[in-house]
Design brief:
With 222 residues, the protein is an alpha+beta fold. The chain is built from six helices and ten strands, in the order αβαβααββββααββββ. It has a six-stranded antiparallel beta sheet with strand order 1-8-5-10-3-2. The protein has a four-stranded antiparallel beta sheet with strand order 4-9-6-7, with no helix packed on it. 30% of the residues are buried.
Length: 222
Amino acid sequence: MTQEDYRLTEEQIRLFEVFGFLVRRNLFSPEEMNKINEEFDRRLASILKETDPEEKRIFNNWSNRTPETPFIASLLEDPRIYLPAEQLIDEDSVPVHSNANSYENSTDWHPDWSDLHLVAIKNVMYLQPTTADRGALRVIPGSHKNPLHEELHGMGLRSTFGPKKARFLEESGLSGEDIPCYVFSSNPGDVIIFNQLTWHAAFGGYKDRRTCTFNFGNYIPK
């Protein structure tokens, strides 16, 4: 396939602008996903070897820009990843990082950024099948824009890094899973792109829930 085959259509760009995310199915082949998993296994094993076995860890995270993960490292420069970034941000978009993550717990509702002058997108691929009750990413459509973005902050929905349950959830009697959202049920090879201002979460965590992420960004002049 040519590079042009990986470019987003005007309809896809519009969907992303309105809702703050875009789903792309079967972007990577089973053979490519096998390579990714092999490199992930190798890097995770080396990290665990250097970790104190008595240390309780629920999250391992590392950069893919290493000699141990050459194929994953190359994906920041893969047209399937960087061409949509250039279309959604601009041709001056900057590749920020490529990370791999091994989670154990669920992830509560949060945005990655709240600086409206920063345009940042994240490409996320899960290395195992996901469903609503087993680790699927959830996004709140349109929450990358105000007033919804700030209204969610005002509700106190964010609880990922706090010691207490989110105020809104506590007072309403709802759980994080009850928040209206789009659930990215996926298979290996699928990728979701989202604006990092978009509120997102994942529930139904389990040991070694795997993702790879590819981030791009740029600042809008004030």
